[in-house]
Design a protein that fits this description.
Blueprint (H helix, E strand, L loop, with lengths): L1 H9 L1 H12 L11 H18 L2 E6 L6 E6 L7 E7 L19 E3 L2 E3 L7 H16 L6 E7 L7 H9 L8 E4 L3 E2 L6 E6 L1 E10 L5 E2 L10 H10 L22 H8 L5 H8 L12 H6 L3 E9 L9 E2 L2 E10 L5 H14 L6 E10 L2 E2 L5 H14 L4 E4 L6 H9 L3 E3 L3 E2 L10 E3 H22 L1
Parallel strand pairs: 3-6, 3-7, 7-18, 8-19, 9-17
Antiparallel strand pairs: 1-2, 2-6, 4-5, 5-20, 9-16, 10-14, 10-15, 11-13, 12-14
Helix pairs in contact: 2-4, 3-4, 4-13, 5-12, 11-13
The structure holds ligand BES and manganese (II) ion (2 copies).
Length: 456
């Protein structure tokens, strides 16, 4: 531990400067206007892996953005850890809500503010620096492979093909990912699950053109009104989702499992205060922790239609649209759920409108076993670095590719994230605490150490 602490101490400034350099690339995968920058980011990551001591570093082309691969094989008889992360980020808008520009990383109150600071540049870069540390202090105890992709935020479409086509190259004993959250630095935790996702887009078409709302309003269905009614009907009075068959197969947790989950440190008043809401909301019969961890949900991500410009315009819009996603839990299949949604949404449309529904990407839920060597190694590493045993939690977010790692490579994933739910992921003023960044760099070599030791 002292070797680790010394190395981090001696390289503190450079570790931060390099992360800032990485954060300056606007690697937004969703928006084609950033294409050149996304590609440059991949080259930068490859360069940094090489500098840290990785071999066979390659920027692997795909039909979309490239996947950066690198490895250090010290002994084929030792275990191998495959580190996964993503160098792409979410779009930064709404820009006017940022206190400092999203791609000009700024340090304020010990926090790094930038798009990608936590999700996932700040987190995957800890692994590059921890690897450098192990190389330069001669303490790398196992083989290591890096796979850093550029399309996580848009569904990882090409990563699946890459994994399937590179099974031999990616052969490993476990996947290690830092792209999730902890409860807090005082209450370290380890996520044991990710939810799945089904993402839909709907359009409600009314008349064949926009109409004067005085001349036609009240006599022709307004697609915006109809869309709102249809969306509102997707939850009942107990906030259960009303799509027939939606909950079929959902794996319910035992009373003990639920109790363990609810024993995690959580303060509802602080939660409400942080979000400036007077009351929480959700499915009746479940706590807030359960609502975001073990229960499926349905959210409207965006809704638009008609006039949204300045001032007032009296118009009955020809159509209205919404983007709707569902978070899924074990027992639910995203393709089947997408189909259920489509059928249901079409079936509830009144004859006065036409409805079309398309499915975007999806993802399978994932639960990691807590009795695996890798989970135990992560547990021990966190316990040593934080001086406290981590609490197992179920995360609400999704990393759709994780289920595929198990399916294609036959290995489990350990989710050793160091972010906080309050780090403003996907939101303005995304941040990452400098403390978490260095703490992560300290914890990761311990994971490798314990994983190698336990695998003997
Ligand atoms: N890192 C997040 C997922 C995450 C965040 C998991 C916090 C647990 C806690 C990841 O980059 C992400 O945002 N995933 C997307 C899914 C993707 C298909 C766009 C998500 O969860 O919305
Ligand atoms: Mn992420
Ligand atoms: Mn994300």
């Amino acid at each position: 531990m002292q070797t680790i602490k010394n190395y981090v101490e001696e390289n503190r400034k450079r570790f931060l400067d390099e992360l800032f350099e990485l954060l300056r690339f606007p690697s937004v995968s969703a928006d084609p206007k950033y294409k050149g920058e996304v590609l440059k980011t991949a080259d930068f990551v490859a360069e940094k892996l090489k500098e840290a001591g990785a071999e066979n570093v390659e920027v692997c082309a795909t039909e979309g953005y490239p996947i950066v691969y690198g490895e250090k094989i010290i002994d084929s008889s030792l275990p191998t850890v495959l580190v996964y992360g993503h160098y792409d980020v979410q779009p930064p808008d709404p820009l006017e809500l940022w206190h400092t520009p999203p791609f000009e990383p700024t340090l304020r109150d010990g926090k790094i503010y930038a798009r990608g600071a936590c999700d996932d540049k700040g987190q995957f870069y800890m692994h590059v620096k921890a690897f450098e540390l192990m190389m330069n202090t001669n303490t790398l105890p196992c083989n290591i492979k890096f796979m850093i992709e550029g399309e996580e935020e848009v569904g990882s479409d090409n990563l699946g093909k890459f994994v399937t086509a590179n099974k031999e190259r990616l052969k490993a004993d476990v996947v290690l990912i830092s792209d999730t959250s902890m409860i807090s630095m005082e209450n370290p935790s380890l996520e044991t699950g990710l939810r799945g996702l089904a993402y839909m887009e709907v359009e409600v078409q009314g008349p064949n053109r926009d109409l004067h709302s005085g001349v036609y309003g009240g006599a022709v269905a307004n697609p915006a009104t109809i869309l709102c009614q249809m969306i509102a009907s997707l939850h009942d009075e107990n906030n259960h989702i009303t799509i027939p068959g939606f909950y079929d197969g959902v794996i319910e947790l035992s009373a003990e499992e639920r109790k363990a989950l609810n024993d995690a440190p959580f303060n509802l008043d602080d939660y409400k205060k942080d979000l400036s809401v007077d009351e929480v909301w959700g499915e009746k019969g479940y706590s807030t922790i359960e609502r975001t961890g073990i229960r499926p949900t349905l959210e409207v991500n965006g809704i638009w239609g008609g006039y949204t410009g300045p001032g007032a315009k009296t118009v009955l819009p020809a159509k209205a649209n919404a983007k709707i996603s569902m978070r899924l839990v074990p027992g639910q299949d995203w393709k089947a759920i997408s189909e259920l949604f489509k059928n249901h949404f079409e079936s509830i449309a009144p004859k006065s409108v036409k409805v079309s529904v398309v499915a975007h990407h999806g993802g399978t839920p994932y639960v990691t076993p807590t009795d695996s060597l890798a989970f135990k190694a992560a547990y021990k590493a966190i316990e040593e670095a934080f001086g406290k045993q981590p609490v197992p939690t179920r995360g609400g977010g999704s990393i759709p590719i994780v289920a595929l790692f198990e399916q294609e490579l036959g290995i489990k994933t350990v989710l050793m994230g160091f972010g906080l739910d309050s780090d403003n992921l996907h939101s303005p003023n995304e941040k990452y605490d400098v403390f978490n960044y260095y703490k992560g760099i300290e914890t990761i070599p311990l994971f490798h150490k314990y994983f190698a030791e336990m695998s003997k």
